[in-house]
Design a protein that fits this description.
- The chain is mainly beta and 611 residues long.
- Among the domains are: 50 residues, no CATH class; 65 residues, no CATH class; 91 residues.
- The chain is built from 1 helix and 32 strands.
- Strand 15 and strand 16 form a beta hairpin.
- The longest helix is centred in the N-terminal third of the chain and has 4 residues.
Length: 611
């Protein structure tokens, strides 16, 4: 071949493939060498290597056909144990000489590996240094295309990327936790529904188990993958201690919170659309299956502990709903019993009933008892509205039951007021069938009665006596003539008979005998006692009687007679003679058999009859 200047040679039109031959001088001898062997195993000793290119192909191409690394960058230590490596498979390794194997994380899937040791920190930094809102990011992606291009759509459930956390178990690196992003639905153009799955490895296990997920709708599942109808769902199995809590909030409220601190708040709204929501429940407690062989001693839907007493006002449950149709601050619709261990206060400014009890069954509407349960002498309002005090049911007395039954030693009515009025017992009657209207009563109608009955060995229906008030004439507006009838039951009878009647005019009629006490014999001066009405004087001399003040005994009658021939006189000049005149002291003359009836007129004692 003729000699040719290098500068006269044409430029190569294609990249070198390593088979080209170049002349070299080696040991003073000119030899040929292929480009492929020209730099094999050589180290570039230059301080820097600059590669400048303006080509549509790669500026630097490294082809490794052997088992060694394609590129190794190390510091001054040679051989460096923590170099930067691109191995023969194209994997990038920083901080180690080869990819680190970990169980569950296949090395073949690790395109970049970063390893540190005790002398160097390990971490990844993705920074974006500019005066803008954007920042560095780490993007993990997935395509079903088998080449490094897009165009093959992923499917629901496909992993979009994951972060795996591994630890050395003494033999290998195994996973302790993972955060995985997955397709959560059917994807499409500009539509990629995703979910995040958080997993941890249980003690004694070697692979992570899903613990929590956030689905494409933002719903959170803790220990649960079925989130339809739930915004947050926890299905974790409580374990690890004798007492467990599924959710606990125990933060310390700081001093800048001075108005209200709400630990749990429910504040839902409804969409602006025409629809009806059957039930909106802010809190619900329901029982799941009680497993075979297990038992629950006490189950509580809501518990306010005894320690809830540190505030000025402490409420186990507080309802602040204003009165209105369909509104209840507390509503227990179940048929089970309700129990209140402490005192119960009911206060309302509503026009409706402060306490309403509706009994649709056969049991009592209200039962109040002492510490004995069941109490044999409670206070009861039965299903018919009858009130029973001191017994468990109504009792037939005097031939029938009444709305009020009292079993006890007696009843007390007291009025504590700074006036002249005392307690009253008011009995009334109307011919109207409703207290909302008025219908006038008629002559002879009973206005009220007090009936007295005793147990005759068979029942308590036999009446022993009664006091009855009845209309005694024709009533009208502001006009109600009345009479009182007093009745007793004779020996051998079971019904009462009228014994005395006081008419509307005050006229008293007696049916039967009338007694005013037995006569009392006096043999010396005496003071008339309040129970003495008939007096026999049998003194050896004049007998002086001290009569009570006539003003205190208006209408009282006193009968005196003497069986001795001795006078009977008053200790004061307060006796008016049978024939009238001024009051004096003379009552009976000194003749045996003399008598006189004295009646008080409120000022003196008047002799109404005598001899």
């Amino acid at each position: 071949m003729a000699d040719v200047k290098i500068s006269a040679l044409p430029s190569a039109s294609t990249p070198l493939d390593g088979t080209e031959i170049l002349p070299i001088v080696q040991g003073g001898i000119t030899e040929q060498v292929s480009v492929e062997n020209l730099t094999a195993g050589r180290t570039v000793a230059a301080a820097t290597v600059n590669v400048d290119a303006n080509s549509a192909t790669s500026a630097v191409r490294i082809t490794q056909t052997g088992a060694g690394n394609a590129l190794l960058v190390e510091d001054s230590a040679s051989t460096d144990s923590t170099p930067f490596v691109i191995d023969s498979a194209g994997k990038v390794i920083a901080g180690a000489t080869a990819a680190v194997s970990s169980i569950g994380v296949v090395p073949g899937f690790q395109a970049i590996g970063v390893t540190g040791n005790g002398a160097s920190a390990t971490g990844l930094f993705a920074g974006f240094l500019n005066d803008a809102t954007t920042a560095g990011s780490i993007n993990l992606g997935k395509s079903r295309n088998t080449v490094a291009t897009v165009g093959s759509i992923v499917s629901s459930g496909d992993r979009l990327g994951s972060i795996q956390f591994v630890g050395d178990d003494g033999a290998a690196l195994i996973r302790g936790a993972a955060i995985t992003a997955e397709v959560d639905g059917t994807p499409g153009t500009n539509d990629m529904p995703g979910r995040l799955v958080f997993s941890t490895t249980a003690d004694g296990a070697s692979a992570p188990t899903e613990r929590m997920r956030i689905d494409s709708a933002g719903r959170v599942g803790i220990g649960s993958t079925s989130l339809t109808g739930f915004n947050i769902r926890s299905s974790l199995n409580p374990t690890g201690a004798t007492s467990t809590t599924n959710l606990r909030v125990d933060g310390t409220i700081q001093s800048d919170v001075t108005s209200t601190s709400i630990v749990f708040a429910s504040f839902p709204a409804t969409a602006a659309a025409s629809f009806t929501l059957s039930n909106l429940r802010h809190f619900q407690a329901s029982q799941n299956t009680i497993g075979a062989g297990s038992a629950v001693t006490t189950q509580t839907g809501f518990l306010a502990e005894s320690t809830l007493i540190g505030a000025t006002n402490n409420y186990g449950f507080y309802g602040n709903i204003a009165a209105g149709t369909g509104r209840w601050n507390f509503y227990a619709a179940g048929t089970a019993d309700n129990y209140f261990g402490g005192a119960t206060t009911i206060s309302t400014s509503s026009t409706d009933a402060a306490l309403r009890v509706t009994q649709t069954g056969a049991g009592n509407a209200l039962l109040v008892e002492d510490t004995t349960n069941p109490d044999s002498s409670p206070f009861i309002v039965d299903a018919s509205g009858n009130v029973v005090v001191g017994y468990t049911s109504t009792v037939s007395v005097g031939g029938g039951t009444r709305p009020l039954t009292v079993n006890g030693a007696g009843q007390i009515l007291v009025r504590a007021t700074n006036d002249t009025s005392g307690p009253t017992l008011n009995l009334g009657k109307t011919r109207s069938t409703s207290l909302a209207s008025n219908t006038i009563v008629q002559n002879g109608d009973q206005l009220g009665g007090i009936f007295f009955a005793g147990d005759d060995g068979a029942n308590i229906n036999s009446s022993g006596a009664s006091i009855v008030a009845a209309v005694d004439g024709t009533p009208g507006a502001g006009d109600m003539p009345g009479r009182l009838v007093f009745s007793t039951t004779a020996d051998g009878a079971s019904a009462s008979t009228e014994r005395m009647r006081i008419s509307n005019a005050g006229f008293t009629t007696l049916t039967g005998s009338f007694g005013r006490g037995a006569p009392v014999t006096k043999t010396a001066d005496f003071t008339l006692a309040t129970t003495e009405n008939w007096l026999i004087c049998n003194g050896a001399g004049t007998i002086t009687v001290t009569l009570p003040a006539a003003s205190s005994w208006t209408g009282r009658e006193v009968m005196l007679k003497t069986i001795a021939a001795q006078t009977v006189v008053s200790a004061s000049s307060n006796v008016v003679p049978l024939v009238g005149g001024a009051a004096g002291t003379a009552i009976l003359a000194a003749t045996a058999g003399k008598f006189a009836t004295l009646v008080s007129d409120g000022t003196n004692w008047i002799i109404m009859q005598g001899n």
